[in-house]
Every structure is written in structure tokens, then in C-alpha cells.
Amino acid sequence: MIRNQLQIILLVSSIVGAKCGAYISGERLQNPDNSITIGRGYSRSTGAIMGSCLNANIEKDNVPMDYDFQSIEVPYTMEDASTVLSKHFMNALGYNWVKKNIESKMVEVEAQKKVVPAKLMTYFQHVVTSMRAERYFSGIDEIETDLTDETAALLQKSEYTTFFQICGPMYIRSFRRAAEVTTVFTYETITEDPGDYGSLLINDITGVYSDSPDDTFYLSDGSQAKKTLTASMRAWGLVLGDEEAPMLKIRNMRSFNDVMDYAFRSMRTSNVGIPVGIEVVPWVSNPKFRWAAKLTTDFEGTICSPPGSSNCASVQFSKHILAHNMMTNAEYIARLEKIVNDKILQYYMMEQCSNIAWSFPPEEEKSLLVNHHSLIDGNIEEYDPNMRYTDPGQEELKMWEISSSDYKQISVHKFRNLLSAERLRLVREEVINYFMKYVDPCYTALTHNIGQYKSGMFMTKSYDEIAECSDHVCGMPSAVWDGAKCVRKETTMPIFYDENGLNKDSAYGNEMNVCDPESNASICVKQDIDVIAKTYCMPMISGVKPLMTSGDSSQADEQPVITIRNPNDTPTDERIKRIKKRGSN
């Protein structure tokens, strides 16, 4: 009863969705690696942008544009600054950049407070100005737009699985674009109170002082604010190929005005901006797709269970149910395709990473690799100088196992062992088994013929009603085939050593737990080779060698420490030294 009610709800939602589509927005669309164009396929369950399957005839109309310009003074406390930025810039393209820029300065001030006397403190104040233009949706004329010849041929042959692998379950009918120029003005004060300089600066930016010189900002005195004023600017979605385009570098008020005037002219240009929102619709809502996919009439035929047996019955399905099943199966295919592709890409990344690690000269095998997670997050990471290195040849079997310290720092030698040829072979087999034992049988079952209807199963049944596709665990990104069914890697039970002190499965497993013989499971170390690969790939030598446990003792007294800093941050130590020097003068 519940299952029937759920199917009715899904059917109604699919019919409604086919008419009105959906609107997607978010930071992922702003990734320059995405090539968002009208007519490309899209999957809502994975967010994947897929192939272009329409000869898009874009409507030529003058779409309206929203315009916004604002300048604000940012409070000097982190909590208040966060509130103001969220209120005014949460939807801005430059929100994360502005927030990171300002917070890094506030962190620097907090570091000063620990070592610098109050009377010698320097505080950073900020004024943020942003100009943004946003164009409304412009889309395709679906009456005048045809499927590409290749994809239309697939539908004529009832190759539905292949079509949705290429084109996705939905397509982009239109998208919304935005262009923006954001500037952060920063100046220093000797107190937390910014005074009135920020408001005077805003008046100058907005042109309140008409008698201000063109080549300077409004500066009322020789204050510290005047001497330390700097400006950082970033732009999104502008056309900068014009010879008249100015440099996005502010030297004075004249150059600032030149940039803003050019940006405004650029924002008025047709097709300017980057995608910030897309309208996606299921293929079953496209009239030409419905005709090519034979979704214009009800289905009448004979279904045998299992296929090919004599246990058959006459059935009839309305075209609405056919469309619902096709949408559901198409989205599931998109999900499986992403899982398989991600597994394959992960394997190739690990293989390339291993090749690079083995290309390092022998004298580097004791060196530590750079932890890329620290660089990506912009954190200060100090390598533990007391980590003991296992000399090659000593306890070689343990080199297959991931220790807790390996997630923070790892030597070239240990990394080579973890990404050995045997490990890569087993990872490759894991991908092959998942595809051959689950994905391929599921695709085959979906393409079974029903009577005279080729691939009729694709329209008459949802994937969860088909035995070969019904294992819901197999549709999870972490799924692996264990020989009889799919299991999630992270739920694998801890593996203990055998009587010989070694459990080969735990050493070779892709994600398991390894425990000492007498330990309990709570202190086991997860064997997640995927995390190790993402942490250190592609491998780079850090230039640091840990201490030795045996063999070479020439480094026994060394205490190497490496610090990785965000290259965009100003070293706090240097600024503190400068402040102390100023105080001594």
C-alpha cells in the first residue's frame, strides 16, 4: 500500500516537473571548469553537466537586467563583520573572496595582541564596494530546436540507456548570468574605532565630493589611514578583450573611476556575465523528444516474468506512467555513470601518483611529502619532527598498513608501499567487479524487450522494481562488490591480526580498520587509501627527512620542522617585528 502511494506521488511530481522544470543555482555553477551552454544535459541527483544533444536555437530577445551598486564600511569585530557581509554580499560572486580577505587581517590583529603592547597596536579597517549586473533568463525556442541527428537516431533505435548516458535525464533550457566588480579598501588605524575616515572614503567613491581632485582619494589630513590606504579589486564575467579595457589595478581615484565606467559599459553588453542560475527540464517534457522516444501513445503488450518464460500476462500503461519510469531510470543511470567515472578517475589518479613517487631518486625515499590538504585549506601545518621513520627492509610488512600519523605526514618510501603495484591491481579489480557484477547486469535488464517494444522494460518498470537493479546500496558512491552483493566500504568491520601477526586482507583492503592483536576496535586505524591519495597526490618532496629508528644515525639529533603558509597571507612575524621597531623609535 505504501509502495503504491509512493509511486503515485512520484508520478504526479514527474508530470508537474515535466511542465515547469526546476531552477538550479549555487557556487558550483560558477566554476570556470564547467562549460554551461543551453541544450546540454544535466542530472539533478549528481549535479553533472553532460553532453550537448540539441541544436539549440536561442531566442533573440532583449532580456531585462538588474543593476546594483553599494559601498559599506565593515565593522572591526569578526562577529559584526560577518553579519554585515552576510547581509549585503551573501549572494555576491565576491562574497568568499571578500570574507577571506577581511578575516585574514583580523586573524593577524589577534596574533599581534598576544605580543604587542596596546599602544603599539595596528588595526585594519575595511570599506567594500560592489557593482553587479544580473540578466534574466533567456532560453531556446523549443519549437524550432531539434535533437542532434546522432541522438535522434539513438531514440529511433530505442537505445534509451545510451541516450541518457550521453545526454543526461534533463537538459538546460535557459540560464541567468551575472557580472560583478568588487573592491576592498583597507587602511590602518591605531585604535579599533575607525573614526570618520571610512565614511569620507565612501563619499569620495560615490562622488559626493564633486570638487575632489581626479587623481586622489578624499584625504582630510595626514593621518595613518591616508598613508596606509590600499585597494584590492576582482571582477567576474566582464569582457576584457577590448583594447580600451583598463587594468584592474587602482592607483588613484581616476583609475578607479575608469575601471568602474568600463565595467558598467561591459555589463550592458549582450551575453556578458557568468552563469549563476540554470533552468533545467526533463527530456520527457520536450515535444520532439517525446515523439522520437515513442511517448505519445499508451503502451499495450505482454510481459513475461522472468523474461523469456511462459508466465506471461497482457498489460497496459498510460503514456504518463511511461514518462515517469523513463525519468526515474534516466536519473539512476546518471548516478551510476558518475559513480563508475569517479572510481575510474580515482584509480588513474592513484596510478599516476604512484608513477611520480617511484620517479624520485633513491636518496629522497626518506623525505616527507607535502600534505596538500594543508595547502588547500590555507592552514599552518607543522610537521612532527619526532616521527620515527622505519628503515627500508625493517618491518616491511607493516609498510602496507596505514598508521594514524600517515594521514598527517608520510615518507616517500611508505607512500610507495601504500600505492604499490599490488595495491593498484586490487583497486582496479574493485572497479571492474562493481561494473561487471552490478552496473552491466542492471543496464542489460533495463533494455529487455517487452513484446514488440524494443527496450520496453525501460518504460514499463522503474529500476527499483527490477531485480538486477534493486540493490539500493549499489547506488551509493562508496559501494563495492563483495562477491554476492554491494557493501559500503566505510561500514567494513575491523580486521585483526592472525596468529602470525599479519592479516593480509587488512593490508590490501581499500578501506578497512587495522588493530593490534590485543587492542579493542575503538583504537583501530582506518585503512582509507583514497584519503591518503587525495592528501599527497600529486606527490611533491617537502625537503624534510624525519628521524631514523635504525641504521643511519647521522640525522638522529636533527629536529626538522616545515611550515606551510597560505601565499596570500602576510607573515605575522614580519609585521610584528616592524611594529616593535616602530615602537623603539
Summarize the main sheet: 8 strands, antiparallel
User: Based on DSSP secondary structure assignment, what is the total number of beta strands?
Assistant: 21
End-to-end distance: 84 Å
Return the structural class: alpha+beta
Question: What do you see in this structure?
Answer:
This protein is of the alpha+beta class. Helices cover 36% and strands 20% of the residues. The chain is built from 17 helices and 21 strands. The strands form 7 sheets. Strands 1, 2, 3, 5, 6, 8, 9 and 10 form an 8-stranded antiparallel β-sheet that branches. A 3-stranded mixed β-sheet has the order 17-18-19. α1 (2-20) crosses α10 (319-359). The radius of gyration is 31 Å and the shape is flat.
Topology:
Layout: H1 2-20, E1 22-25, E2 40-42, E3 49-52, E4 54-55, E5 65-74, H2 78-89, H3 95-113, E6 123-139, E7 146-147, H4 149-156, H5 160-167, E8 170-189, H6 197-205, H7 224-228, E9 230-236, H8 253-267, E10 274-282, H9 287-292, E11 299-304, E12 312-317, H10 319-359, H11 372-377, E13 381-382, E14 388-389, H12 412-418, H13 421-446, H14 457-460, E15 479-481, E16 486-488, E17 494-496, H15 504-508, E18 511-515, E19 525-528, H16 529-536, E20 547-548, E21 563-564, H17 572-584
Parallel strand pairs: 14-20, 17-18
Antiparallel strand pairs: 1-10, 2-3, 2-8, 4-7, 5-6, 6-8, 8-9, 8-10, 11-12, 13-21, 15-16, 18-19
Helix pairs in contact: 1-10, 2-3, 5-10, 10-13
